[in-house]
């Protein structure tokens, strides 16, 4: 099998004729659009070109050939989604040849689709987190509230829904613990770092009394009107402060939660400990963060190691 991407631009004449016949047959059966026809032709041409470099043609493809081709695409870092799409096209092609009695055996019959990896959660660097946390103007009660919320969100790895749902009685600043109600109404105790505790104390002492209003609600974090904040309101505040801080990375509502997990693993935290802190029922859910940490280590190695 050749190393690197193949250089052939078009398949040999016999393979090209078979592909043309297949596309025309599909057009007559289904009335395919020009874009779909081009996509099928491109996928089959690529496969045929690869076969030609192996001194093979579409007419004598075996299951082993197809497996080798899929392995080659994996080694060349093609996306699993594009490989799955191409395999679907190749299946349709060989089923057509089988139906037309051009071949006797369908080589795609027992070939499985490539597994699609889970998308990596979006995270941001520690430098960007620092910039975001320092962005709120703390002379303003709302800014001080936002700083406390951001510090707690990043320092404890909470979901935004868990953060805004906190009540005053669920936090023990002396013990440095939160009683969090997570998914499925499951309770867990989450430790709070010293930095987040300091900001929570400042918020409760200086800002919260100014936001309470006539009714003193149980909610820990209050809106300008003295009511429990909504998820949407706080998400808008995060985006506002990120813009003020010049954070360029794409954000999601769980960005700081993902950063919490990723940065813990980058600094050597145990995976099961991170699982407990995040409130994941299964370790497999937490393991996705190890891919981010590994990817970051690879980047650092390439950037700083003399032989990277």
Give structural notes.
The structure is a single chain. With 308 residues, this protein is mostly helical. The chain folds into 2 domains: 87 residues, DNA polymerase, domain 1; 179 residues, hpI Integrase, Chain A (Orthogonal Bundle). 57% of the residues lie in helices and 4% in strands. It is built from 12 helices and 3 strands, in the order αααααααβββααααα. A 3-stranded antiparallel sheet has the order 1-2-3, with no helix packed on it. A hairpin with a 4-residue loop joins strand 1 and strand 2. The protein starts with 12 loop residues before the first helix and ends with a helix. 30% of the residues are buried.
Can you lay out the helices and strands and say which pair or pack?
Layout: H1 13-30, H2 34-53, H3 63-75, H4 80-99, H5 126-133, H6 141-156, H7 160-164, E1 171-172, E2 177-181, E3 187-191, H8 194-211, H9 231-245, H10 255-266, H11 271-278, H12 283-304
Antiparallel strand pairs: 1-2, 2-3
């Amino acid at each position: 099998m050749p190393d690197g991407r193949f250089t052939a631009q078009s398949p040999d004449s016999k393979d090209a004729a078979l592909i043309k016949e297949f596309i025309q047959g599909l057009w007559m059966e289904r009335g395919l659009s020009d874009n779909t026809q081009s996509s099928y032709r491109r996928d089959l041409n690529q496969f045929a070109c690869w076969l030609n470099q192996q001194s093979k043609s579409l007419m004598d493809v075996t299951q082993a050939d197809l497996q080798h081709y899929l392995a080659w695409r994996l080694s060349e870092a093609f996306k699993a989604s594009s490989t799955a799409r191409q395999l679907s096209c190749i299946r349709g092609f060989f089923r057509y040849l089988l139906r037309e009695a051009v071949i006797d055996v369908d080589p795609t019959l027992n070939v499985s689709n490539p597994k699609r990896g889970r998308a990596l959660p979006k995270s941001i660097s520690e430098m960007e987190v620092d910039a975001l946390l320092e962005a709120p103007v703390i002379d303003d009660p709302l800014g001080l509230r936002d700083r406390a919320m951001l510090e707690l969100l990043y320092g404890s790895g909470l979901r935004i829904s868990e953060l805004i749902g906190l009540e005053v009685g669920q936090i023990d600043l002396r013990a440095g613990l939160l009683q969090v109600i997570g998914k499925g109404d499951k309770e867990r105790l989450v430790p709070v770092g010293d930095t987040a505790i300091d900001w929570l104390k400042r918020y409760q002492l200086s800002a919260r009394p100014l936001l309470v209003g006539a009714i003193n609600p149980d909610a820990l974090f209050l809106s300008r009107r003295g009511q429990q904040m909504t998820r949407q309101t706080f998400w808008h505040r995060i985006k506002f402060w990120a813009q003020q801080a010049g954070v360029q990375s794409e954000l999601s509502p769980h960005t700081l939660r993902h950063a919490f997990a990723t940065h813990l693993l980058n600094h050597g935290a145990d995976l099961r400990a991170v699982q407990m802190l995040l409130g994941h029922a299964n370790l497999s859910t937490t393991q996705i963060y190890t891919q981010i940490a590994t990817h970051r280590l690879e980047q650092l190695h390439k950037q700083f190691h003399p032989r990277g």
